[in-house]
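Sharing a chain and its predicted structure for anyone who wants a worked example. Both blocks are below, sequence first, tokens second.
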Amino acid sequence: MKQKDVEATGAAMQEQVLLGDKTPAEVFEEHTGMTMIDGEQTTVEEAETLESGFNHVLSERTGIDWTSNDHTALDITVYAEGPGEEAFSGNLQNTEVFDAMQQAMK
């Protein structure tokens, strides 16, 4: 699985399950390209919300974990080294960081 294969958030997958006639496993496979394995559908269904269940399974499968489900307005420090590093100086909006990364990677 490539990370770019994940096409929906846990919230979007939850909404599709709640508004449609597909199982969590079907929605998960449709939006990630991965088939749920032993106990993952149960994990999703027994979680506090389907969203948190989907997010938990995705975190386990990809090795990416989050410390919070919330956003803050706090500034963070971003360091860059290499081609395009000059674009990362000063205060940037989060979308400007994305743009600078995209430009540096061409």
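Comments welcome. The CA atoms of residues 38 and 59 lie 16 Å apart.
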